[in-house]
Structure to design on (159 residues):
């Protein structure tokens, strides 16, 4: 059985994430999505962001990554903390594939003994969107769903 993993803050969930999640779901028998807690970058609660994933991928296992290690410094020690944290959360699911559009995917795949699936940039550029750009520029709202944008407004994550 193929079990895929996607990891992210989804702060906010944007069209690039949607492409990544759909490609992962289409390629595996079970999709596990780990949503990191991220109070340092978003006011939208973890449970709300996890809900976005549930709505988009109803059959996915969505894990809420509470009390995750700090992401402020990426030393080898901090990398190990993240790897151990993720491993503890996903070990029951026997991950066979890690899907990402970022460099961390290759390393995480090695740690989990899984195959890395690099989701490349789509022609419309959706995979290369930046959540930071969307949070900081209201014109970028075209790249998020109406529900995501309403939640961003509700919690003050837009300019």
């Amino acid at each position: 059985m193929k079990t895929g993993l996607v990891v992210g803050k989804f702060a906010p969930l944007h069209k690039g994430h949607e492409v990544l999640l759909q490609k992962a779901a289409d390629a595996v028998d079970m999709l596990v999505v780990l949503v990191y807690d991220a109070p340092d970058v978003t006011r939208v609660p973890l449970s709300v962001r996890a809900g976005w994933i549930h709505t988009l991928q109803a059959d996915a296992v969505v894990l809420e990554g509470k009390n995750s290690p700090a992401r402020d410094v990426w030393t080898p020690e901090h990398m190990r903390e993240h790897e151990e944290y993720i491993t503890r959360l996903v070990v029951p699911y026997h991950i066979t594939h890690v899907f990402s559009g970022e460099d961390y995917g290759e390393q995480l795949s090695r740690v989990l003994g899984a195959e890395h699936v690099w989701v490349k940039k789509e022609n419309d550029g959706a995979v290369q969107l930046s959540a930071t750009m969307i949070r900081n520029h209201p014109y970028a709202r075209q790249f998020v769903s109406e529900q995501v944008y309403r939640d961003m407004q509700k919690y003050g994550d837009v300019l």
Notes: The mean pLDDT is 89. Residues 91 and 150 are 34 Å apart (CA to CA).
